[in-house]
Amino acid sequence: MLYTEILKDPAVFSKLYKKGKKTAGTGISAFYLSNKRPFNRFGITAGKKVGGAVERNRAKRIIRAAYRKNELLLPLGYDIVFVARAEILEKKSTQLDGFFSRLSASMKKSV
Predict the structure, then answer these.
(1) Angle between helices 53-70 and 97-109 (to 10 degrees)
(2) pLDDT attached to residue 34
(3) Is a pLDDT exceeding 90 seen at residue 68?
(4) Which helix (H) or strand (E) is 24 found in, with range?
(5) Which end of the chain is more exposed for a tag (fewer CB within 10 A), N or C?
(6) In this structure, is the dihedral angle defined by the CA atoms of residues 41, 106, 64 and 72, taken in order, positive or negative?
């Protein structure tokens, strides 16, 4: 990933859930907030409602692959948390392109 670091700090996840803006699609939601840095940071969560460990890891792989493909669409300087839903297991990473274009448009509008 060219312009991205991985989010691991639970405090940042909580901040995004409380203060971030939300965009949702089928099987995936995203919370985002400006971080005033020259790069993006992103994290992925998949709760037990998605399924067992195998299904949760597959959901994270799908989101990671879609992010990697669409990274250049997103504006820089944001913290983003993707939340997987159970419906994502029926999708492929290429089917999330529409969600990423909507996410990009809503992030650019919020600037």
Answers:
(1) 60
(2) 94
(3) yes
(4) strand 21-25
(5) C
(6) negative
- Pull the structure tokens for residue 97: 């392109």
**Residue 14 CB partners (closer than 8 Å, separation 6+):** none
CA–CA dist 70, 100 (Å, integer): 7
Cβ(71)–Cβ(82) below 8 Å: no
pLDDT category, 31, cuts 50, 70, 90?
A: very high
Enter the tokens of residue 41: 């940071």
pLDDT reading at 110 higher than 80: no
CA neighbor of 47 nearest in space, from 19, 85, 77:
85
| Averaged pLDDT, 25-39 | 94
Identity of the amino acid at 105: A
Residue 2: pLDDT above 80?
no
What does each C-alpha distance from 70 to 2, 13, 98 come to in angstroms? 11, 22, 10
CA 95: distance to chain centroid?
14
